[in-house]
TrEMBL record:
GO molecular function: FMN binding; riboflavin reductase (NADPH) activity
UniProt-listed Gene3D superfamilies: Electron Transport, Fmn-binding Protein, Chain A, Nucleoside Triphosphate Pyrophosphohydrolase
Example GO BP: pyrimidine nucleobase catabolic process
Family annotation (SMART domains): Flavin_Reduct (SM00903)
Record-linked Pfam families: Flavin_Reduct (PF01613)
This protein's UniProt keywords: Oxidoreductase
Domain Flavin reductase like, chain residue ranges per copy: 24-167
Organism: Gemmobacter aquaticus
SUPFAM superfamilies xref list: FMN-binding split barrel
InterPro entries according to UniProt: Flavin_Rdtase-like_dom, NADH-dep_flavin_reductase, Split_barrel_FMN-bd
The name this protein goes by in its record: Flavin reductase
Length: 317
C-alpha cells in the first residue's frame, strides 16, 4: 500500500509563506549591506542576507532585492553595487539599512570604493562590483555582479539565524575556558630519567598538552613519539604555573629499558638534572632523586613557586 502525496507539497500555491520563511531561516547566513549610487550620485543601500558567491573565473557574486523595495529601480539601473559584509559589532547598521529612512548613510562612515560604490567602514569584508546582469526571479530581483575589487578584514562577521542575529566570536570569548593542561612524563629506568631538548638550550622531561581526547590518549601519543616502552604510574605532581597560565600534571612512568628515539636517559641525581632549564621542574626532579634514594615518595600540590608534598602514608586510612 502506498501513501498518497500531500497535495500541499505538490501545489506551490498552497505553501504557507510564513512557514517557508521560517524554513529558509534554518540556514545560517551572514549579514550584508548592499550599496550603490543613484543617477544623482547619492548613496543608497539595503540590508540583505541573500548573498552568495557564484564564480571565481570570472569573479561573480549575487544578491537579491525585493521587488517591493523603494530602491529597486535605482539598483536595476545602477552601473554597479557593493556588498559590505557586516562585522559582529554592526547590528545597528544592519537595523538602519533594514528600515525606511530619509538618509541611511547619515550616521555611517563610508567612502567610494575602487569601482565606485559606497563602502562602509569597519566591515568584515567588502566586494565592489560592476553590474553583470539583472535577473527577475519571482517576488525578488537578482543582481549579478562582476567583482572588480575586494578586501577581507580580521573583524568577525555578523551572523543571522532563525530571525535573530548571532555573534559566534563574541559569544565564544565570553565562555569560561578550561585550563591549559600540560602533561609531563617522568620516565624512569634503573636509576635514570629520560630528558629531552627543551628548545631553549637546556633539558626537560618529555611534555605534551592534553587535548579533548584526555590524559591517557595524550600520554600514549607522547610515548609513541619517543619510541620508549613505558607505562603510566603514579601522579607525582599537580601544580599551576601562573606565569604561563598552565596547569601541570606530572606522572611517574616506569620504563622497561633505557631505549628511546628522542633524548637520553641520565642519572637521576641533582648533578644529572642540573641542566634542566625550568626551575620548578628541576626542583621536582631533585626531590624525586632524594625520594628514590630513601624509597619514600610523595605527591606535590601547589604552584610553580610553592606548595606542599603529601606523603603516600598521609592518604591511607
Amino acid at each position: 500500500m502506498t501513501n498518497s502525496p500531500d497535495p500541499r507539497l505538490s501545489d506551490p500555491n498552497v505553501l504557507d509563506p510564513r512557514a517557508l520563511r521560517d524554513a529558509f531561516g534554518c540556514f545560517m547566513t551572514g549579514v550584508t549591506v548592499v550599496t550603490a549610487l543613484d543617477d544623482q550620485g547619492k548613496p543608497l543601500g539595503f540590508t540583505a542576507n541573500s548573498f552568495s558567491s557564484v564564480s571565481l573565473d570570472p569573479p561573480l557574486l549575487l544578491v537579491s532585492i525585493a521587488n517591493r523595495s523603494a530602491n529597486l529601480e535605482q539598483f536595476r539601473n545602477a552601473k554597479g553595487f557593493a556588498v559590505n559584509i557586516l562585522s559582529e559589532g554592526q547590528r545597528d547598521i544592519s537595523a538602519t539599512f533594514a528600515k525606511p529612512s530619509e538618509d541611511r548613510f547619515a550616521s555611517v562612515y563610508w567612502r567610494h570604493g575602487p569601482v565606485g560604490s559606497p563602502l562602509i567602514a569597519e566591515v568584515s569584508g567588502w566586494f565592489d562590483c560592476t553590474m553583470e546582469q539583472v535577473i527577475p526571479a519571482g517576488d525578488h530581483t537578482i543582481l549579478l555582479g562582476r567583482i572588480g575589487a575586494f578586501e577581507a578584514n580580521a573583524h568577525p562577521g555578523l551572523g543571522y539565524y532563525r530571525g535573530a542575529y548571532v555573534t559566534p566570536a563574541a559569544t565564544a570569548a565570553q565562555l569560561p575556558a578550561g585550563p591549559d593542561v600540560v602533561l609531563s612524563a617522568i620516565i624512569q629506568s634503573a636509576g635514570q630519567v629520560l630528558l629531552v631538548d627543551d628548545g631553549r638550550g637546556g633539558l626537560s622531561v618529555p611534555m605534551t598538552r592534553v587535548g579533548r581526547e584526555g590524559v591517557q590518549a595524550a600520554l600514549s601519543a607522547l610515548l609513541e613519539t619517543l619510541s620508549v616502552e613505558a607505562e603510566a604510574g603514579s601522579v607525582y605532581a599537580v601544580y599551576e604555573d601562573a606565569r604561563l597560565g598552565t596547569q601541570h600534571l606530572a606522572l611517574r612512568c616506569p620504563a622497561r629499558n633505557n631505549q628511546c628515539a628522542k633524548g637520553a636517559f641520565v642519572e637521576l641525581s641533582p648533578e644529572g638534572v642540573a641542566d634542566v632549564t625550568d626551575p620548578a621542574l628541576r626542583s621536582m626532579l631533585q626531590r624525586l632523586a632524594e625520594e628514590s634514594r630513601m624509597g619514600n615518595y610523595g605527591t606535590y600540590f601547589g604552584t610553580h613557586e610553592q606548595g606542599r608534598v603529601q606523603r603516600i602514608a598521609e592518604g591511607q586510612n
